[in-house]
What we know:
The structure holds two protein chains of two kinds. Chain A contains nine helices and no strands.
Amino acid sequence: xxxxPAWERDPELKALRDEFIASLPDRMASLRLFPGIGExxxxxxxxxxxxxxxxxxxxxxxxxxxxxxLDDVLDLPAxxxxxxxxxxTLIWVLAQALRRGVDAAYVTxxxxxxxxxxxxxxxxxxxAESLASGPSPGSS
Amino acid sequence: xxxxVLIAEDDEHIARLIDFKLRKSGYETELARNGxxxxxxxxxxxxxxxxxxxxxxxxxxxxVLKRAREMDGLARVPVLMLTAKSLQGDHSVEGLVESRxxxxxxxxxxPAELSQRVASMIEGAPKRQGDTAS
Lengths: 140, 134
């Protein structure tokens, strides 16, 4: 979605991207507090939501999509979420993938595309995006 | 004539990216780190455009937009709302994004597209009293 060579062409833009990448360990520290089961702290929710909004603009669209899928599932009412057989597994798969994705983005400085292409992760993203765009799980 | 843009965004990294792109495009900018700060700055300049993140601490972007629309000088100022969430089916924002002067851009966005959108919104905005053609 972004013109990647632009990061290299413009030193100021490259510096901004470097600073975003340098912020990933701090974001990761919050994600570690949410292993993918149990309650998610408001601060961690904020980290997930912000990652969804910012990563793609810095050339990490796969990371944004992953965070956005988890954010979408966490938005579902707990009661409605539980109605899906895969509810808990879905969140766990996405949370684990997001943690691996953030780690990979920090280490390789590249968008972790291969992670969202893994079968289980791709399926979890598909389900999450379908739930987010479909009717409320509480309504039928 | 210089155009001033108020950017209200709580994520430091996205705020700085928007700021960088708009300054590079020749706009003067000011940053507000949350909605409350944005509201307090509404009256300090004749803004040409507001960029408002929807989800911000203290006061959200929709509230900032409502406050702006209640002010004489900002009733018709172009406003670009940024959100990582779809607004489809969100009845709480009906009436706020119907006008051409309020547009919504999904996050994550391409920074170049954002600056193009800002340019077209400012160019297409009704002239304010006191503005002169350049």
